[in-house]
Design a protein that fits this description.
The chain is an alpha+beta fold. It has one domain. A hairpin with a 2-residue loop joins strand 1 and strand 2. The longest helix is centred in the N-terminal third of the chain and has 20 residues. It is globular and about 45 Å long.
């Protein structure tokens, strides 16, 4: 089960309004469609960063995850976004083998300031 980010409002950790969830899913579909049709292949990290920034800009609380797993002797990484308990872009069973990293990427307020991205922080 995903753990809510400590800085999210309590009501956001347990659920979003139906309108917020529908909007988040719509934005995720748009990002996925753009990734499929773009001249440069947008991988999971590109899509997740774009979606997380867009959701934050719209005031929809989201969490950006980067996870890792070891396959044979190689380290594999994957990125995804969660809104409430809903995984966007990926199916939940696709991420279960990854261990999420903790740190700056799960903090939209600090991460956006570090990268210079303009957006409103969710508190």
């Amino acid at each position: 089960m995903l753990q809510p980010h400590a800085e999210l409002r309590a009501e956001d950790a347990t659920g979003l309004t139906p309108e917020e969830l529908a909007r988040a899913q719509e934005l995720a579909r748009w990002i996925a469609a753009a990734a499929r049709h773009h001249i440069v292949r947008a991988r999971c990290l590109h899509q997740s960063l774009a979606l997380h920034a867009w959701l934050t800009h719209e005031g929809i609380p989201s969490r950006l995850y980067v996870g890792v797993r070891k396959v044979d002797s190689q380290l594999r990484a994957h990125a995804w976004v969660a809104v409430g308990e809903t995984i966007l872009i990926d199916a939940p069973d696709e991420i279960t083998t990854f261990t999420p990293l903790r740190g700056a990427l799960t903090r939209p307020d600090g991460w956006f300031q570090y990268c210079g991205i303009q957006g409103k922080a969710v508190r």
